[in-house]
Amino acid sequence: MSAQSALLKEIAGPAGQNLNAQELRADARREQLRLLALLAPSLFLVCAIIIVPIGWLFWLSLFDESGALSAANYARFFEQASYIKTFITTFKVAFIVTGACVLLGYPLAYMLSQLPRRAASICLIFVILPFWTSVLVRTYAWLVILQRKGLINSWLIDLGVISQPLPLANNFAGVVIGMTHILLPFLVLPLYASMKTIDTDCLRAGMNLGASPAATFRQIFFPLSLPGLASGVVIVFVLCLGFFVTPALMGGGKVVMWAMRMEQTTSLYSNWGAGAALGVVLLVVTLALLGLFQWLLGARTTGVWSSR
Amino acid sequence: MNRMRKVCVVAIAGLIASTAVPAIAADTITVASWGGTYQEAQTKAFFKPTADALGITIKEDTTNGLDDVRLQVTGNAVKWDITELGADECARGSKEGLFEKLDYGIIDKSGINPKLVHDDWVGISYTSVVLIYRTDVFGDKGPKTWADFWNVEKFPGRRALSSSQATETLSVAALASGLPIDKVYPVDIDGALKSVDKIRGHVDAWWTSGAQAMQLVKDGEVDMASIWNGRAGTLKKEGAPVSFSFDQGVLTADCMVIPKGAKNKEAAMKALAMFVSPQLQANLPLYVDNGPVNEKAFETGKIPPERIKDINSAPENVKKQVLQDAEFWRDNLVEATEKFNNLIQQ
User: Fold this and answer.
1) Percent of chain B with pLDDT over 70
2) Which of B96, B341, B345 is the closest to A270 by Cβ?
3) Cα gap A142→B77, rounded to integer Å
4) In terms of domains, do B80 and B221 share one?
5) Chain A residues touching chain B at CB-CB below 8 Å
6) CB-count burial class (<10 Å; 0-12, 13-18, 19+) for B279
7) Which domain holds residue A121?
8) Inter-chain contact B346–A148, Cβ cutoff 8 Å?
9) What is the mean pLDDT of residues A275-290?
10) Tell me, what CATH number does A159's domain have?
11) Residue B157 burial (C-beta neighbours within 10 Å; 0-12, 13-18, 19+)
């Protein structure tokens, strides 16, 4: 839009003659309409299969069990302490897992992007292979490794490093480990893709002008990799918020996340609204957080993020 | 292969004929149950013999419970003629008006506990919640009662209880507080919650599925747990070092219903009558650990005497257990579950 109007202004020009301005504006409008017409089928599809059902579900959240209009489904979150607790746990897990993914994923993606193409593609397979394996299978595999008589604990005990098994499964730590492993590819892949597009000439130019390797990384590479990191972080964070299988199995019932609560509530109450209200709250808070993310990153990366 | 082809032929023929000759459709009913080994056993014990005897086709599906029925009935898209549910779900669904009335002129209710015989639902089988412990930790001197389970000084060790089945855990908690089995119902919910409060700090895992309970015990993640008898029996058969008994077990019933608006009500009624008949009920424990709901099944002579003592609903074992009261939970489930969740998630 802004580019277009700038163009129009330029054409209309410093001469101040609005010679073809009207014609050009009409043409631009026609083109927009044509684009909109091209988009119409997909817009209609999105509307029909996403917006309408979700809207309907939200509408249902306003009705109580007798079918009367009420805020009972939302009031419940404040009456029952466990909902707030679950909500806090969900965001705690999401922040910690996203943080862990960044700490592990950034160096990994950086290494992959610096490797020769052949070696990089072999290493990428190791990232993608678990990505293709069922979440359920991987979660159970982690249980086998982490539990009280699992691989890690029995090795450490046999080696005499510890005398009591470490509490690694059926608690918060287990959930974080399992989820980090499952979500890591979602961070590494977009990050790797964006790092690959960074022009190495920029880095060479920086070095050539006397910057140390560390300074080159900090001042050139890192800022350029931020858009990829941002999309990875957002994907991981949002996926975390809706995670079900891993916390249900690795948390030992002590880490209850929002999606688990939705399942419980949906089967406990006879009206869909009870569960729908949980969905509404999660969606609204997630959208608010995404807006905040975009605003923060938009300010940092000068619009690279917002142009996506 | 042959059977597949036959099914295909029947399906295609049915598709062609369905508009012209609705009578053909009347010979097919769809029954939904929980899947897994339990449903495989039901197929052999109930579905196949019924289909043969009545000359109908029984198609099978799996259910997730009351939500599925509610979705089908309220959405006017009922695809099942009979479905299995937990007894408390039957009681709740009945209150919501989701089921067709049953015709006890066709279904013979004698031999079934009257608490499981209702206008629109009837019991089908029993599961027990039992106390299991690992014999490699306790030898044969493990916790035998729920009071033992609650006694963390005398029986140190790691523990697991169910968080998804709040009703069962509250019944167990009531037993642990010292109530005799005939005084558990109606459950004093606040009293039971107080009992849960005493143990919750010592519970290392709260399980949400039967498979999870089994895995926790099998891998030694916990030393004692509440568990469904079918899962406990499987562990024992697999050679895991475990021990359990029906003493102070909590007997929970499953039930069957005809969802409101089922396409083939009449055939479904006849099939349901067959499922609960003593002859077919006696088949069930031959394939799975879930006990028959009809006590006349034990008089048919089909079940070997040495097997009877291992069946949770055998008259001798029923005496040792508490029967979950479906109608009590129909009225108290929501409140009790929310309170329970608040407590264990503190």
Assistant:
1) 92
2) B96
3) 41
4) no
5) 76, 80-82, 85-86, 143-144, 147-150, 169-170, 248-249, 252-254, 256, 264, 266-270
6) middle
7) 81-300
8) no
9) 90
10) 1.10.3720.10
11) middle
**Residues of chain A neighbouring B341 (CB-CB closer than 8 A):** 80, 82, 256, 264
Query: Chain A closest CA to B6's CA: distance in Å?
Result: 35
Is the predicted ipTM greater than 0.90, yes or no? no
The alpha-carbon gap from B64 to the nearest alpha carbon of chain A, in Å, equals 10
Residue A59: φ, ψ to 5°: -60, -45
Say if residue B199 is in the same domain as residue B112. no
Owning domain of residue B74: 2-125+253-314
| DSSP strands (E only) in chain B | 28-33, 57-62, 82-86, 122-134, 159-162, 203-207, 224-228, 242-257, 291-292, 322-323
- Within-domain flag for A249: yes
Cβ separation B341–A270 shorter than 8 A: no
Do residue B97 and residue B75 come from a single domain?
yes
Using a CB-CB distance cutoff of 8 angstroms, which residues of chain A are in contact with residue B342? 80-82
Per-residue confidence band for A267, with pLDDT thresholds at 50, 70 and 90: confident
Number of domains chain A is built from: 1
Torsion angle of the four alpha carbons A51, A53, A59, A65, in this order, in degrees rounded to the nearest 10:
-160
Q: In this structure, are B211 and B326 located in the same domain?
A: yes
B154 and B221 housed in the same domain: yes
